[in-house]
Amino acid sequence: MTEKNKKGLTLINTGNGKGKTTAAxxxxxxxxxxxMRVCIIQFIKGGWQTGEAIxxxxxxxxxxxxxxxxxxxxxxxxxxxxxxxGRDAFDFARKKIADNMYDMIILDELxxxxxxxxxxxxxxxxxxxxxxxxLHLVITGRDAGEKMIAAADLVTExxxxxxxxxxxxxxCAGIEF
Length: 177
Ligand code: ATP
Ligand code: MG
Fold this sequence. Notes:
Blueprint: E1 10-14, H1 20-33, E2 38-43, H2 51-55, E3 63-68, H3 79-99, E4 104-108, H4 111-115, H5 121-129, E5 136-140, H6 146-151, E6 154-157
Parallel strand pairs: 1-5, 1-6, 2-3, 2-4, 4-5
This protein binds adenosine-5'-triphosphate and magnesium ion.
């Protein structure tokens, strides 16, 4: 078996501390360095233009990058639209998985779709269990549920010890976005 077609793992980065998304982006960089095919789908919470979205334009050949959804906020003017876009984004992710074109797929902030009951946790577990056997699947977001944790191979909880936000320091380019 080559490095690229070993058993794929499911990884979850969860918890309240910072570092879930950035650790996943680190994996994408690491995998791309091995000529693995990577797809990143960000299920956005807000409308920020992130550094990764800009930088990844230079890695389009190795890393297929998509930002989906309209932001998960219950203050949104049209909740039905938020739900519809969230479900469409999840369908898009499942199609990417079924296409079997990638060695690693990162579903960034997927847990929010479950938390806000846009999709069920069972649907996520099915997605994990039915994926192509060689695919590494990386899921990030706070409050990962017990069922998806049980279905995963590697789960890390980022625990906040200190965050500059508590001192009133605003989100900083290159650190937060
Ligand atoms: P990052 O994208 O920096 O790796 P994350 O994915 O772990 O962070 P999220 O829960 O997705 O964190 O939150 C995204 C944003 O909230 C980031 O700008 C991050 O710096 C910030 N953030 C994360 N943890 C905290 C915290 N404990 N207090 C305040 N802000 C936080
Ligand atoms: Mg994140």
